[in-house]
Amino acid sequence: MSVASNNPKAIPYLLTEATSSSLNAIEIDLLFDFSKVTPSALKLMDPTAFAKLDLSQIRQISEKQASVISIDQLNALSQTQVLALSPVALSGLQNSVIECYAHINYFSTLKTLNPFQVGALTASQIASLSLAQIHMLNAAGLTNAQLGYIDGSNQYILQDLSFFQVGDLTRSQIASLSLAQIHMLNAAGLTNAQLGYTDTDNRYILQDLSSSQVGALTDSTIAGLTIAQLAFKDADNRYILQDLRSAQVASLTIATISQLTIAQLGYTDADNRYILQDFTATQIAELPLNIISKLTYAQLTYSVVGSPSCILLSLLSDVQIASLTRDQLQGLNGDLIQSLSLPQAAALTVAQLLDKDSQGNFIAHDLTSLEVSQLSDYQINGLPASRVQMLDSSGLGYSQLLLRDKQGHYVLEDLTKKQVLNLTAQVKSQLIDNAQTSELGDAATDPARFNTVITFLKAEGADFKGFLQSVTKPSNTQTDFSSPSIAQFLDAAVDDYIAPSLYDTLGHWALGKDLTPWMSNGQRQVSDSSIGSKFYQDGMMAQTFMTSEGQLIISYEGTFGTTMDTNAIKIDSTFLGNQYKADGYIFANQVAPAEQDAVEYAAQVINLAKSEGISTSKIFLTGHSLGGILAEYTAQQTGLGGIGFDDTGIPSPSTSSQGDGSNFINILTYGDPVSSLCSELGENFSDNSTPQYHYGQDLFIGNSLDTSYPSTLLNSMIDSNTGLTFEAEITKERNDANITSVQYQSFLAEIIPELLPYAFPYHSPSVLAYDLGIDLPLLSAQALSLGVLEGHGGNLKDAQPLDLQNSSISQALRYTTPPTFVSVDSNRLL
């Protein structure tokens, strides 16, 4: 076929029907629409003619046309022409052509090469590519051999891959890599799916990464890690969790961090910070309670990355705050408690408010005025009066003062002089304005006490000795003969320390003027404390006195060592050791045989009294220290009334008890480490899970600022034989049922004298007498060698004596607070 070069009409025919010779002979510049050239014609086109195509014509080459271009044709094109090939055309080139093309770097883009084309590239071709061109390659097409090729900078192609390309690598590609090659990967591109692939050794790719590679993983990838993956060890034998940077830890999901163990929270991360410190405020607020309850004091005070100016404690949610344990709270100091936010303070439970901080102060005492202002009805309703008196009253609002405390009193009625003075002017004004309304006066638990508050507020600075001292005092003449007086109870409790044989010669020098030993059938009624008797072996000694009104007082001896067989004030060391044994049972939270003996002796007295026409309503109980505990236990079991002086709390009854606690008072001295051992003050013996409340009603006397923390004191003492702390020794002996062991008795004999220096200023009957306005019989005070000047740490002027010497039990009850609510049906103190 002969076609004139100046005959454009022939061009359409040539485009579709031309042979290679005719196509080669045509003037190429006449082929305005080169896309119409058939692949079969293009395939036969001479390379020289092909090279004459202009750039517009090259841009028209389709994928189908490109699929027949030969290596000779492609090589005939200039770099400029190759750069004009469209991505569609490039993707159509045969693999064999790609593989043989010497100028692969002429391509304007390599992104459009399909994986098979990429896989056809030779080592020399790849070496000719720039880093930017390598980054254009479809990494999914690279073979393992290609990944090991060297680029123009003498670096493995695997090392050249961008993180986008790494993310495109297939399972088979990654699985074929050696450990050394895996370490060349840009880990920032690895996906969670790729991390879960296994290598030739059946190890997860995540485990093959180096520590630095784990640190390069993206936050989104970190967020996808499971708790199991965090526990993997990397190629450097470090836990994956430890490889994370602080910012990466902050990317972990709540679901993941909630499964971390306490040990894992203690790991250090790649930035040498504890994992717990890396959490954001949101993550911390979502930590489960089982983790929060196990955090140490140090961990609670960590500074955190998300809020560097804050400690972890300050970021806990209300629910988390409420879950803090006693041990955790006791590790915090007052400043940390005061740093709580107002919602956090409002979330503290009643039990927490009654716990102590690291400085021995009750949490309630640590609260700032603002924190106090946020206390809820529930919180205040659970505080006993003694804890209300620890609150910063400047934070108490008018409505809070009208709430009831644990004993059912107005909070207003609980306040000390200092607290009343510290009330805000607005609150004082509200109280005075509303004093005579039914809102206040008519509802007061103790109107006399309430009126004293109002009177003092109006006077603002009057001589105010405390609310208990300011109410109307009982007359010096006893008008209520339902029970002996407080003075008679204390006389009897102290007289039981004195040998009865001295009464015959010394009379009222030994006994109070209103007491005489009770004689029945011509015999003085004392317990059988002869050597070898059951009572003697158990450490229980008691005697019965009669008042001038014909009432009987059974008095139990405290830990002192005098018995009925002595004719002078003389210590029987064997009997004293037996009393230590009784103390040991009580410390171990068990009912001592001496307590059962006390009930038995009371039953003997009741039977004798009945035979003489004396009703049970005229029989009362008393004792000091161990004696008070025996009286308290006997009252619980029998329902008899009485007074226990400086006695401890006792366990809940294991059998049905007769008493409801309404006619028994525990008179307790502030600062006394013995009477402070009770659950209502947050102090237990050796088992914090078992309540040991005082039975009956509590009457605190002395200086309310005097505090005692016997559990802390006791646990600072170590058994020299075993090296165990007091609590550990007690728990061990109780669990071994070995309360009577010689070793245990030796331990008690060792520690009880050590307690005396702490107990002496507060546990003395003379201190009780001073605080109650009672004059002890001269011999009793001198014999016990407990002068009042030793009381209250030698600072008696801070204690305000109560004139209660002539008060009966019913009269004294107005000053008491119930330690618990009593439920006989449930056989326990609630």
Structure description:
Helix content is 43%, strand content 5%. It is built from 58 helices and eleven strands. It has a seven-stranded mixed β-sheet with strand order 1-4-5-6-7-8-9, sandwiched between helices. A two-stranded antiparallel sheet has the order 2-3. Helix 47 runs antiparallel to helix 56, helix 50 (573-587) packs across helix 55 and helix 51 packs across helix 52 (626-638).
Largest sheet: 7 strands, mixed
> Which assembly state applies to the chains in this document?
single chain
Q: Beta-strand level of the residues, as a percent range?
A: 5-15%
Beta strand count: 11
Q: Helix count, per DSSP?
A: 58
pLDDT averaged residue by residue: 75
> Ranges with pLDDT <50 over ≥5 residues?
1-20, 436-445, 460-481, 778-799, 820-830
Q: How does the helix and strand content classify structurally?
A: mainly alpha
**Ends apart, CA distance between termini:** 118 Å
In spatial order, strands of the major sheet run 1-4-5-6-7-8-9
Specify the overall morphology.
elongated
> Helix coverage percent of residues?
40-55%
> Radius of gyration over alpha carbons?
46 Å
Name its key features:
single chain, 830 residues, mainly alpha, 7-stranded mixed beta sheet, two-stranded antiparallel sheet, 58 helices, 5% strand, elongated, disordered N terminus, disordered C terminus
